[in-house]
Amino acid sequence: MPIIFVVMAYPQPSGEFEWTQxxxxxxxxxxxxxxxxRHCFSTRDLALESVLAAPAPGWVSLARALDVEIASxxxxxxxxxxxxxxARQANRDSxxxxxxxxxxxxxxxxxxxVADCVPILLADRRSGAVAAVHAGWRGTAAGAVMVAVDAxxxxxxxxxxxxxxxxxxxxxxxxxxxxxxxxxQFSSHPEAPTWFxxxxxxxxxxxxxxxxxxxxxxVPPDQIHVCALCTFDHAAVFHxxxxxxxxxxxxxxxxxxxxxxxx
Length: 263
What we know:
- The chain is α+β, with helices and mostly antiparallel strands.
- It is 18% helix and 22% strand.
- It has a single domain (18-256), classed as CNF1/YfiH-like putative cysteine hydrolases (4-Layer Sandwich), CATH 3.60.140.10.
- The chain has a six-stranded mixed beta sheet with strand order 1-2-3-12-7-4. It has a six-stranded mixed beta sheet with strand order 5-6-9-8-10-11.
- The longest helix is centred in the middle third of the chain and has 13 residues, at 144-156.
């Protein structure tokens, strides 16, 4: 009897993203960001254990894909804030409470986990410094991506005009229904009225909010890349907390610094 192979049809990301095959299966990569720093956005194909689990084959596979030791793959205890952790070899095992990790150390990689929230990876194409950002509605209201750009500037002399940003899979404006009072949490953001639909049941557009905040931080619009894939919509490919509740797994976005690329 012939063997039949079933190939999954993956959803089409925006023009600057592409599917890649890793040791565990499919992952997403942003082409402009790939020219600066090694990185990936995972799918359900990568089974992730707790950040404290040992042994942890999923995390080991991710570390190998980024060409770092497993001990040098930095993972945070994420608490839906805009606090920054500066990752280095000396503190790589600290498991800080933070939702933004920055580094210019090419021997470590930084990562964030999501299951509907927005994963954002940033890289300075001049210095090679990088950031990984986890932003749900609380992180977005706190301006987490702007905090991340400021952190790269303060610590590594990054100019916002040199930043390339990749916004990975998250819940989209199609599916992120929110309460009518949530808009008050975004009052400090002048663009916020455009992030909420005016329906009887409003929806929040985290993709647009992230893009607007990066632009306000000084990142050129043509260097901001949004894959525009909704985690809720694509159950076969992505985990979604809103769809699966506490049973939901986690996706990961990770990036490794390429410090010293250019003077």
